[in-house]
Amino acid sequence: MMTESRHSARWHDFGVPIVLACGALAILVASFLVAPQWLFVLQDIVAFGLFAVATNLLVGYGGMVSFGQAVFYGLGAYVMALGWQRYHAPFWLLFVLAPLIGAVAALIIGALALRTREWYFALLTLAFSQLFFTIANRWYDFTGGDNGVFGPMIPSTLAQPRHGLWFVLAVSFIALLLLWAITVSPFGLTLRAIRENPQRVEAIGVNLRRHQLYAFTLSGAFCALAGTLFVVHDQSAFPGLFQWTQSGEPILMAMIGGMNYFLGPFVGAIIFIVAHNYLVAHAASAWELILGIVLVLIVLFAPDGLLGLWGSRASGSHPFMLLRTVVAAMRSARRSR
Predict the structure, then answer these.
(1) Strand partners, 251
(2) For 100-140, how does the pLDDT look when each residue is reduced to its tens digit (9 = 90+)?
(3) Is residue 75 scored above 90 in pLDDT?
(4) How many CB atoms lie within 10 A of CB 190?
(5) How far apart are CA 85 and CA 157, in angstroms?
(6) Beta carbons of 311 and 319 less than 8 angstroms apart
(7) pTM, full prediction
(8) What is the 3-class SS of the chain, one letter each residue?
(9) I need a surface site. Which of 6, 83, 187, 222 has the fewest CB within 10 A?
(10) Within a 13 Å sphere around the CA of 276, how many CA atoms are in the beta-carbon half?
């Protein structure tokens, strides 16, 4: 029993980094084998996977539903695009600067939004998202309005699809390791305890608001980093990056993969982007309908996401196992007649 417990603890300690390393190696190998158009799809998956995991630090681990993470994602992209267009700043300087600006913006917005709770908090983050969308859309002289900013804003070597994918992969791998280290640190464990029972955690002397503000700031910095990777992938920035629907996508990905699992949002990003690309190419008008049906099925049969379904299958308790048991019992009853 003790041996099993030790193995379980070791898996808990090193399982995620091992899976991340294997996944990164698989994508690296795939970059030599797949067609050029799939290199862009892989870039999209990796960058959006980072965005989804960074959002889930707040939603899944902190229990704070935010519809404003697109603010920091869009901010990261706009810092890169406007820095290149308006100030002719070097790419590498902007790449370092963007997550810092995202963190400062998240600190300010979080300090204001965390004065409220639950749905009021979600609505306030949604309001900030629409505010930034309106500024980007209407400030033509500076942001280019609804035309956005387009152009060769990244080094020529990163513009090559395979090199771009390697760069996005390396940055995301390091960022995901850092996010994982945060979730298993005492700070991450406290965050989970706040999600489960904030009153009890506050009663033992933990400063609730300060921990939530730290989580909001960290999530904002990593979301801005994902925004810079969007620029490497797309070489553009436009107002749609700030819209609340952009904030909703990583939450949907986390729901599909499993909010209570570190890699759940990344699994959701793989499924969401591959399905989106396939359905837009073959059944564009039915894409949103199919997404809605999939979400209803997940809520009904896999509320902990696909990774949760896999975990419950191991214990023999998921809904499909129950359905199989019922069918087997009906067959047995029919034979006995």
Answers:
(1) none
(2) 999 999 999 999 998 887 788 888 999 999 999 999 999 98
(3) yes
(4) 17
(5) 19
(6) no
(7) 0.86
(8) CHHHHHHHHHHHHHHHHHHHHHHHHHHHHHCCCCCHHHHHHHHHHHHHHHHHHHHHHHHHHCCCCCCCHHHHHHHHHHHHHHHHHHHCCCHHHHHHHHHHHHHHHHHHHHHHHCCCCHHHHHHHHHHHHHHHHHHHHHCHHHHCHHHCEECCCCCHHHHCHHHHHHHHHHHHHHHHHHHHHHHHCHHHHHHHHHHHCHHHHHHCCCCHHHHHHHHHHHHHHHHHHHHHHHHHHHCEECHHHHCHHHHHHHHHHHHHHCCCCCCHHHHHHHHHHHHHHHHHHHCHHHHHHHHHHHHHHHHHHCCCHHHHHHHHHHCCCCHHHHHHHHHHHHHHHHHHC
(9) 6
(10) 13
- Token look-up 């490497």 returns 232
Query: Exposure string (b/e) for 306-329, b if CB count within 10 Å is 16 or more?
Result: bbbbebbeeeeebeeeeeeeeeee
Assigned token pair, 178: 């850092």
Residue with tokens 């033509």: 140
Angle at 36 between CA 35 and CA 39, to 5 degrees: 100
Length of the chain: 337
- pLDDT digit string, tens, across residues 10-43: 555 578 889 999 999 999 999 898 888 889 899 9
**Residue pointed to by tokens 């999530």:** 219
Is residue 326 scored above 50 in pLDDT?
no
